[in-house]
Amino acid sequence: MATATLKTKINKKAGTITLPLQEYYRMLMVPVQLRGKAARDLDKLVEEGLREYRAGKTRILHSLAELD
């Protein structure tokens, strides 16, 4: 496992952390694995979404203003 040195700025009062964009993109590439109930719940949500997509129950929105 590689070690990264981050030049961060932490604002505890606002609850924010600022870091270089390059480090942010590197962190996005770290795989995340869900286990147990969280994994099963996500699998069910994806299955339901795919079922609705195949049934034609979805639509493309260009903005949130298009929601009914």
Would you write up a description of this structure?
With 68 residues, the chain is mostly helical. The chain has one domain. The chain is 38% helix and 9% strand. The chain contains two helices and two strands. A two-stranded antiparallel sheet has the order 1-2. The longest helix has 18 residues. The mean pLDDT is 83.
Low-pLDDT parts are none
What global shape is seen?
Answer: extended
What is the spatial order of strands in the main beta sheet? 1-2
Count of discrete alpha- or pi-helical segments spanning 4 or more residues: 2
DSSP strand content? 5-15%
Helix content class: 25-40%
Gap between N and C termini: 48 Å
Residue-averaged pLDDT, rounded?
83
Radius of gyration: 19 Å
Give the ordered list of helices and strands: EEHH
How many beta-strand runs? Answer: 2
Largest sheet: 2 strands, antiparallel
Overall domain count: 1
Task: Give the structural class.
Answer: mainly alpha
Briefly summarize what is shown.
With 68 residues, the chain is mainly alpha-helical. It is built from two helices and two strands; from the N terminus they run E-E-H-H.
Question: What descriptors fit this protein?
Answer:
68 residues; mainly alpha; two-stranded antiparallel sheet; 2 strands; 9% strand
List the helices and strands and how they pair.
Blueprint: E1 9-11, E2 16-18, H1 21-28, H2 37-54
Antiparallel strand pairs: 1-2
